[in-house]
TrEMBL record:
This is Gfo/Idh/MocA family oxidoreductase. Residues 31-138 form the Gfo/Idh/MocA-like oxidoreductase N-terminal domain. The keyword Cell division does not apply. It comes from Pseudoduganella aquatica. Gene3D superfamilies: Dihydrodipicolinate Reductase, domain 2, NAD(P)-binding Rossmann-like Domain. Keywords: Glycosidase, Hydrolase, NAD, Signal.
Length: 452
């Protein structure tokens, strides 16, 4: 990509006032990137990095040799130079050697992407920022509320760029709806909904066989593979909105959270936990399997409500343990109408027939985001319907242009801290809690995400 093109694209992605120089040197044409965690998600992100001419994948780290091997095979398939590797010895802190750069050709990396289990995100991000290696972190930012303050403080202290790699903000319809919101199509926003409604039962259990990560058995923890190895444990120990950012990211963009608006109050309710146990016992031999004795704390449906300074409410639902088709359940409702993604429909007063839904497609075509119009062909074949191209693109372009990250540290910790706050609310009998202001008052003057 030519320099003028990427600056234009960067400005489009990031807002025009954002191309200020930073402590990280002059803008660059090409960046050297490392990855910590080359599991199922890491490999998807790696593919996006490898597809680009402006990225050199210089280092990879994973403590699971099979996952590392798969990532190396991807690099080879693209005909790119072999990166330095770390973690083959199973050392859980091998990422520190990746970060110090001494064993990486060319020295310290320009950035690191973290795609490890949630419990590692805060620690790895903090150490990377302290080592002055800019971070692109997979969702979530941390586990405990303190993690979120620690990640924020490490970023503020070090000044190292940090982006949460929340890809749903880049979904084509989500971005078109952002255009609709900004053009006033819905009138004044009043209420929004979103969530993570994804039947993960076959992800949370398998038989540990790397060739069959989904639904091949009933093991989890040390005997499981990929997410069954670590994610399921969170359903055993925790009860809350465990995966908020896919739902809240777009809703926060629409309502300008941390950028003229803020969350003020939060509460969460959880149902009983039945789905995972039921899934286990319905499998052949499941009732006798040791997993059938596990008591899961995570309610099957967790409903979280947020109140905003400007008067909107946002409702999130986490629903991963029951049979259901995938849907993030978006609803954006204002004084003039609403959009819902589950029925691919919209209703705008004065345009739609009274009390009737209209198909969304004509609106999608009319309000398609300029980034999608420009890059749709490059995004073709990228993960999750193309949005994984955009999230990596945004991160790399911001790095190269030395521009602030579009989904920055304040967005990251605000969206992700919904998890520990929802857990606290549920633990305190569904109490409504104050939502911390991570921006320390700066929400009043910060500019919207993706201001065009
Ligand atoms: N944005 C999305 O659409 C999306 C989709 C899937 C997963 N994710 C997120 O990506 C992250 C990873 O999920 P996944 O599905 O790839 O899980 P995974 O289990 O397949 O991969 C995680 C990898 O991290 C490695 N790892 C664990 N501890 C490590 C350490 N100390 N040092 C180095 N490597 C270590 C594991 O060996 C494994 O290969 C999670 O945060 C998950 O929520 C995001």
């Amino acid at each position: 990509m030519k320099r003028r093109d990427f600056l234009t694209a960067g400005a489009a992605l990031l807002g025009s006032a954002l191309l200020a120089p930073s402590a990280f040197g002059a803008s660059r044409e090409r960046v050297r990137v490392g990855m910590i965690g080359t599991g199922m998600r890491g490999q998807v992100l790696l593919q996006e990095l490898l597809r680009r001419d402006d990225v050199e994948v210089a280092a990879l780290c994973d403590i699971e040799p099979i996952m590392l091997g798969k990532a190396l095979a991807q690099v080879e398939k693209f005909g790119k130079p072999r990166p330095a590797t770390f973690g083959e010895d199973g050392d859980k802190h091998a990422y520190r050697r990746l970060l110090d750069g001494a064993k990486v050709k060319g020295g310290k990396l320009d950035a690191v992407i973290i795609a490890t289990p949630w419990e590692w995100h805060a620690q790895m991000s903090i150490e990377a920022m302290q080592a002055k290696v800019p971070v692109g972190c997979e969702v979530v930012a941390g586990v405990t509320l303190q993690d979120h303050w620690d990640v924020l403080n490490a970023q503020l202290k070090s000044g190292t760029p940090y982006m949460l790699l929340e890809n749903v903000c880049f979904r084509r319809d989500v971005m078109a709806v952002l255009q609709m919101v900004r053009s006033g199509l819905f009138g004044e926003l009043v209420h929004l909904q979103g969530g993570y409604q994804h039947d993960l039962r076959a992800v949370k259990f398998n038989n540990g066989d790397p060739a069959k990560p989904y639904g091949s058995g009933l093991e989890f923890g040390a005997k499981g593979w990929s997410e069954a190895r670590w994610r399921t444990e969170h359903s055993v120990r925790r009860n809350g909105e465990l995966y908020p950012s896919h739902g809240i990211g777009p809703c926060a963009m629409y309502t300008n959270i941390n950028r003229g608006n803020r969350f003020t109050r939060i509460n969460a309710f959880a149902t009983k936990a039945r789905g995972l146990h039921d899934y286990i016992t319905k499998q052949p031999g499941g009732a006798q399997h040791p997993s059938a004795k596990t008591e899961f704390r995570l309610g099957d449906v967790v409903t979280t409500t947020l109140a905003c300074e400007n008067g909107e409410t946002i409702l999130l639902q986490h629903d991963t343990s029951l049979p259901r088709p995938y849907s993030l359940g978006f609803r954006v409702q204002g004084t003039d109408g609403l959009w819902m993604d589950v029925n691919h429909s919209i209703h705008i007063e004065g345009k739609s027939k009274p009390h009737q839904w209209e198909d969304f497609q004509a609106y999608q075509d009319k309000y398609d985001h300029p980034l999608w119009r420009k890059y749709a062909s490059r995004a073709e074949g990228a993960g999750h319907g193309g949005m994984d191209f955009f999230v990596i693109h945004a991160f790399i372009e911001a790095l190269k242009a030395e521009a602030p990250m579009p989904i920055d540290i304040y967005d990251a910790v605000t969206w992700s801290a919904i998890t520990p706050l929802s857990e606290q609310s549920i633990a305190q009998n569904f109490q409504t809690l104050d939502f911390p202001d991570f921006t320390n008052g700066q929400w009043r003057t910060r500019k919207p995400i993706f201001a065009l």
